[in-house]
Amino acid sequence: MKTDxxxxxxSRAVLLGCVGVVLTACSSSSSSSSSSSxxxxxxSSSSSSSSxSSxSSSxSxSSSSSSSSxSSSSSSSSxSSSxxxxxxSSSxSxSxxxxxxxxxxxxxxxxxxxSPSQNQGQSGAQQSVENGNNSxxxxxxxxxxxxxxxxxGSTDTAADxxxxxxxxxxxxxxxxFPSGQDDGSGSRDTSTGDLTSGDRVSQNGSLGGGGGxxxxxxxxxxxxxGSGGTKSARVLTAAERAxxxxxxxxxxxxxxxxxxxxxxxxxxxxxNAAGSSAAGGASGGGxxxxxxxxxxAPQFEIPGDLPTSTSTAQASESFPPPEDIPTGRDDDVVAxxxxxxAMVEPDPELREALWEEYRNYTGLSEQ
Amino acid sequence: xxxxxxxxVGLVWVVLFTTACATHTVKSTSYTPINKDSQNVPEDLLLDxxxxxxxxxxxxxxSSEEETTNHDIxxxxxxxxxFLLSExxxxxxxxxxxxxxxxxxxxxxxxxxxxxxxxNGEAMAIRITVTDSSGREWYTRVYDEVISQFSYDPSExxxxxxxxxxxxxxxxDLLAYRQRNLSDSEITNLRAISGLLxxxxxxxxxxxxxxxQDRRGNYQVERLxxxxxxxxxxxxxxxxxxxxxxxxxxxxxxxxxxxxxLPYDSWRELSYSETVILRELKASAQRRFIxxxxxxxxxxxxAAGGSTYVAQTGGIAxxxxxxxxxxxxxxxxxxxxxxxxxxxELGTSLENEVAPQVIxxxxxxxxxxxxVEEQYGQWREILADLYAADVGEx
Lengths: 367, 394
Hints:
The structure holds 2 protein chains of 2 kinds. Chain A is mainly α. Chain A is built from 17 helices and no strands.
């Protein structure tokens, strides 16, 4: 009996445990869905820093970082949770964008949505701002960012000041000045001296001593992820962008030239064929439709259905009419076509049949 | 008695004279050669000409020609004639490139537009309007020509179109106008305007400020871009491609004209004969109606007023002769109706032959234009991005 009760209790306990596991699993999945739903750009209120962090994180990162965005969103209530669960390197910019720099980020988020690299740059800039604020959470993390996520909740006045100071010019400057121009300018750091203070040292480790003066769209990609400043994904300068566009134009020229020259060859071949067939007395039908640019991928190809020179030569070969056939000056169109068909028909039997048809049609056989 | 006879004879003479005058037609067998500019014009002072597809002139067909005019043939001619005109202008060597334009989107230095007013194998009339790239109209003139059967002689036909004189006259007038009214600086100006109009089409944000319009809507050059302006170079590259596109369309038109030439010439020659016969029959019928009526009236007067038996008999005979004339007039009219039907049948036959070619030509041109325009759209976007990059908006 006791063993039965014990077994019952054990089974209930196991059942409860399962229910508990299921519930926790459900709760985690719901949190992930909520995090994705918060991916809408945040309202620009400087106080709701934690909720904005999840927004900016989801914007700046691809879907691969959804798990990290969960942690950042859940960190709105407790930073320790995010700090306790080190996020992967890809999520660092998300948590970094946690910064309370609302006035600046709100203006730049629209840019970041279109260009991920810019977004990273933005969060990176805010990181430098945040660094001054996050002394509370100042423990250096391997990625150098998990701790910063926590700092988003507690905004120092210095950070706010810097943000407000940058709010007016950051959006414009971010787009106007590419990374190459911003590197080492240091103007913002010097103007907002607080930005250089705090635990900057710990972050400079990840920035590679870059001084932290990156504008929102010029921070080298990968800096925030701790992979070092890779130049490959940095924002292009105007000259580089112009070069790229010129290259696009040039490719378009090549494609167009191939297409139009192919079409010209085709049209000229048809024109020549029409000329020779007209000389042979056949009016012929129209040519085919021109190819579109997409269809012309194998360029300079002449379609195989064009009349060949041999067929043209055959068409132009004519045979004199029989003696009883008049000049045909008064022929109507049908009679003329019969005459033309008979004159170019190489088979004698068919030719005679055509002439017989001509005689019947024109009434010569009745005379 | 004497007075009556005199009146009667006089009336007959008047009728004969009047009817004889009514059938007067002037036909030309002379050939007008193409004039060539005596001066050796530098290449950069040669104006490019765009010949637009002609207006078929369906709305302007006279009611008397409505029955014998086939609308589809007119439409076919409205593509045929511009090509012959462009070939004539090109042959004259007085101009730069001369092309039949598939649409109005490619600016040229000079535009030639036309409306076909008449075309029946015997006569042709075209109204030509010439404007330049600034929007100024040079002139509007009507060119008409009535040709003889000689123009359809095979030896003549191999050399020229039967109505080649019209095209040569248009080319000569165009040259004369240019020589009289355009200085070298004005020619340079027109070429600059057409180039800038093309540039505006692709990069309006860059080139809009280079041109302005006066009160009459004519374009004026405000300033010129630097020769080494990269934006200009890009547009010039694209313009080269646009010329290639227009050249391709010329090949379409060449094919079309070659395909149409034989049946169209046959139709014109037959139409010429029918038109001449028809006109003569109609005139003959009219003459007979007039003469018959006059003779009947004269006969009635002689019969009623004649005092002698001879006069009365003569009057009655005249009435009979007049009635016969009127009847023969009706016969001629019936014969004319047969020839009119023959003309309509000829038109239908040619229509069946050329209408598909016209449709094919239009389809090909539109398809090619669509593909090209799609590419142009992409280039416009790239040029806009380049402009934005240049001014630092990106």
